[in-house]
Write a structure and sequence with these properties.
alpha+beta; eight-stranded antiparallel beta sheet; 14 helices
Length: 440
């Protein structure tokens, strides 16, 4: 079954940050794979392009279309849990939050996650959502099978054993190969993580980064431009017992300070840019040290209610700290008021053709600015530095790279293009963004 709305009837879609807005010919919300197949088949017959959206947490136009926009909200829910195989199959439009909560009720968990869980599973894997990890890679690397609706409306199931060349590409497919209808993840029995969060001097963290990354299963830090401070987070598996944050402490840190007060500081910085260095120093000192032990999704993820724009680049592990030092110097010299922290995370190399960690150990540097703040000068500065070190832009975050550049930093780029040419030669799933980053 499918619900739909034609153009001209309030049919405008906006992303989470508000910087992308589209008015498709029609919007549809299929509730099952068969209905999704019919949507794609009919659109292809009419000569309309098809794009599926998630919850809009990408900052790029990766899901934009003037054709048929597929909404996720009815293609939702856990379909099967196979405890013997250690897998869960879930409808592609299911929010990660719902998946995590369902797994927790079953005593199961994903091995690694990003830091928010509002995205749909299909949107998260298709654009390369990742967390941080010494040995554990991003969400797409945890996919063991998937179901894909192709340009003619047919349904293809694939895995490492079944259509392996499609599976390799489609785990992180940018929506360029088809529309995901089901995703199967590897899961494991639920475990506990102990999180240690504390402020540290940036210079010390940079000097000790290799050791911090090596001795912790998950290490990340946030550096506040205009300061010499950063906030670190170390997550490691724990035998227990669980010691969650007290409810009042959690609310004060995550809602009052990290969201409420920080939103007010960001709004002040947007209205009066000269205040940003001082407020950055205040923000860097706002959160004190804390240690807690809880189930994985309650440690990996946190609420993000302050809306922003973001650029993130994946750098070779050996080059990342030099790039961060260069960025620090460039921000200081530029006079730009940067009121949002730079986030630094790690990932091991993986084997996905378009993964930002494909074939190399990786450090991610993510730059943010509060929504409504002029961002072009800062992001241009960031991108100039990142590309000098063969950085790979996050597919769902702002960047200006094209296929010519990307083919040079992805050794398996041509492999992905060949799969796309075979599955979607008429570009039913194409749009302007894919034309830029894939070349056609």
């Amino acid at each position: 079954m499918t619900t739909s709305a034609p153009a001209g009837q309030g049919n405008t879609w906006r992303n989470w940050a508000g910087n992308v807005r589209v008015s498709p010919t029609r919007t549809v919300a299929p509730s099952c794979t068969a209905a999704l197949s019919e949507v794609v088949r009919r659109a292809a017959e009419e000569g309309l392009r098809v794009k599926a959206v998630g919850t809009g947490h990408s900052f790029t136009t990766v899901a934009a279309t003037d054709g048929v926009l597929v909404r996720p909200e009815r293609l939702c829910g856990v379909r099967t849990i196979d405890r013997a195989a250690g897998t869960v199959s879930v409808a592609a439009g299911t929010p990660l939050k719902q998946l995590n909560q369902t797994l927790a009720r079953e005593g199961l968990s994903l091995a690694n996650m990003g830091d928010i869980m509002e995205q749909t599973v299909s949107g998260a894997v298709s654009t390369g959502t990742h967390g941080t990890g010494r040995e554990l890679a991003g969400l797409a690397a945890q996919v063991v099978a998937l179901e894909l609706v192709l340009a003619d409306g047919s349904v293809l199931r694939c895995s490492a054993e079944e259509h392996p060349e499609v599976f390799a590409a489609a785990r992180l497919g940018l929506g360029a190969l088809g529309v995901l209808s089901e995703v199967t993840f590897a899961v494991e029995p639920e475990f506990l993580l102990t999180a240690r969060e504390e402020p540290m001097p940036l210079d010390w963290v940079l000097a000790e980064f290799d050791q911090l990354a090596a001795e912790n299963e998950h290490f990340e830090f946030y550096w506040f431009p205009h300061t010499a401070s950063c906030t670190t987070k170390r997550n490691n598996r724990s035998p227990g017992p669980a010691r969650p944050l007290p409810r009042i402490r959690g609310w004060m840190d995550d809602e009052l300070l990290s969201n409420g007060a920080f939103r007010a500081i960001c709004a002040l910085g947007r209205a009066a840019p000269a205040t940003v260095p001082a407020t950055a120093r205040l923000s860097s000192r706002a959160l004190s040290s804390r240690t807690y032990t809880d189930i994985p999704y309650k440690v990996f993820t946190s609420p993000r209610r302050v809306r922003f724009l973001e650029m993130e680049y994946a750098l070779p592990r050996t080059a990342a700290l030099e790039a961060l030092r260069e960025l620090r110097t460039a921000v200081d010299r530029s006079g730009l008021p940067v009121g949002f922290p730079v986030e630094v995370r790690t990932a091991p190399g993986d084997d996905l053709p378009l993964s930002t960690a494909s074939g190399r150990d990786t450090v991610y540097l993510a730059a943010h600015l509060y929504r409504g703040t002029p961002h072009r000068r800062y992001f241009t500065l960031v991108e100039r530095i990142m590309t000098a070190y063969e950085g790979r832009p996050h597919w769902g975050k702002l960047h200006t790279r094209d296929a010519g550049y990307l083919a040079g930093v992805y050794p398996r780029f041509a492999e992905f293009l060949a799969v796309r040419d075979r599955l979607d030669p008429d570009r039913v799933f194409g749009n302007d963004y894919l034309r830029r980053v894939l070349g056609s």
